[in-house]
Design brief:
Blueprint: H1 6-9, H2 11-14, H3 17-32, E1 35-36, H4 44-48, E2 56-60, H5 85-98, H6 109-114, E3 116-120, E4 125-126, H7 138-150, E5 157-161, H8 162-166, E6 178-182, H9 199-209
Parallel strand pairs: 2-3, 2-5, 5-6
Antiparallel strand pairs: 1-4
């Protein structure tokens, strides 16, 4: 399904009858409504960041629900698409934290290739209907992914922005890992503690301390 070591990690789920029925249901929704991201991008986060290479996880909620935006990476939009407000604030915090100038595009693929798993809790959404695919079954898969990463021997940084992402903290019990939480970068909450939280430098400090290569956050 993925094409890298995630297939081994997730084989129990991939081979289950329940998951096969779930994917059939999702495929049916693509056939009868407009669903994002494009079908070939659903598992883009896992395809771009293997289990072995995952050093950082940034948890999002569900894909952007506008045409041409989502491509399977949390907070990221396809090239040529207007940068969403939350991502603009992420760029502002990156500049304040590491003096990296905001990118002109909203495509975070480079971060994914650096080892940052940009994982949405829900992997599909109906056009113009945010959270429309929540509680259909995606959370069973993505919670399993977080639990699998929690089991890694190598230290991982989990970045949880906002109350929805913070709910996943209960699955991160391995003391080797670092969990960074703050309010969501949305314009409604960024000034309540997201700005000034310095997640990028804290992540790299932790990786260096554990003899791991830091993330090159520049896009």
């Amino acid at each position: 399904m993925i094409g890298n070591d995630w297939d081994d990690v997730l084989k129990v789920i991939e081979n289950s009858e329940g998951f096969k029925k779930f994917l059939y249901m999702i495929n049916d929704k693509y056939n009868h409504t407009t669903v994002y991201p494009p079908k070939n991008y659903i598992f883009n986060a896992l395809k771009l960041t293997s289990y072995k290479d995952t050093k950082v996880v940034i948890v999002g909620q569900d894909p952007y629900h506008g045409e041409g935006e989502a491509h399977g990476l949390s907070f990221s939009v396809q090239k040529g698409v207007k940068i969403p407000p939350s991502l603009q604030n992420i760029y502002k915090e990156l500049e304040n934290d590491l003096k990296i100038k905001p990118a002109m595009e909203g495509d975070l693929t480079k971060w994914a290739k650096e080892g940052v798993l940009l994982l949405n809790a829900v992997l599909t959404v109906e056009k113009d209907k945010p959270a429309s695919h929540r509680n259909l079954g995606w959370e069973l898969l993505t919670d399993y992914i977080i639990k699998a990463l929690n089991a890694k021997e190598e230290p991982v940084v989990f970045i949880l922005w906002g109350s929805f992402a913070k709910e996943k903290k209960k699955y991160i019990t391995n003391p080797k890992h670092l969990v960074l939480t703050s309010p969501h970068p949305s314009p409604f909450s960024a000034s309540s503690g997201f700005f000034g939280s310095r997640p990028f430098s804290k992540t790299n400090d932790f990786l260096i301390k554990n003899n791991l290569k830091p993330i090159d956050w520049k896009l």
